[in-house]
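Narrative of accomplishments. A recurring question from our advisory board has been how the design workflow behaves on a single, concrete structure rather than in aggregate. To address it, we present the structure tokens for one chain from the evaluation set, followed by the sequence designed for it. No filtering or post-editing was applied between the two.
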């Protein structure tokens, strides 16, 4: 839905996972084997992947100053189950948190969140304020006050609703 470029680093995984469902149409990419394969999700792990997706959406809504779209298991509780390891490169001594096992989606998401915390980019990943959208986008605006995934679609709709609400009858 968004014309914005993907989030940097591991946040692209988070953004991509959150954007697997189109709230307006109800289409869910995780309903297909191909959609699940993109994330390494088996049919038996589908419920957990959806739970993670919606917990991430709540966090991204909070980044944009919006209330949760529904009650979910807190993201911190889900990510606490993901084992991470500290890796140190022998060549330059740089350190990073990485999934202890790179196969589970939860571990890869936890590593991406940890990486973005260190980079200072975690709170720039937001969910669109439009209730029928909540698409994840990376806010590259200088002040970090972006509100919509797309100014041409969701932003224009919101501004038109506001304009029509003020217009005399």
């Amino acid at each position: 839905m968004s014309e914005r470029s993907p989030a940097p680093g591991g946040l692209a995984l988070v953004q991509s996972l959150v954007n697997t469902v189109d709230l307006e149409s109800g289409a869910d990419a995780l309903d297909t084997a191909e959609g699940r394969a993109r994330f390494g999700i088996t049919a038996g792990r589908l419920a957990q992947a959806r739970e993670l997706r919606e917990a991430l959406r709540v966090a991204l809504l909070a980044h944009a100053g919006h209330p949760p779209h529904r009650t979910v298991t807190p993201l911190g509780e889900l990510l606490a189950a993901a084992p991470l390891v500290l890796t140190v490169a022998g060549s330059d001594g740089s350190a990073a948190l990485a999934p202890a096992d790179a196969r589970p989606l939860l571990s890869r998401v936890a590593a991406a969140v940890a990486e973005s915390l260190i980079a200072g980019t975690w709170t720039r990943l937001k969910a669109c304020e439009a209730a029928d959208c909540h698409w994840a986008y990376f806010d590259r605006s200088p002040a970090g006050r972006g509100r919509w995934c797309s100014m041409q679609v969701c932003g224009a709709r919101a501004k038109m609703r506001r304009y029509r609400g003020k217009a005399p009858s």
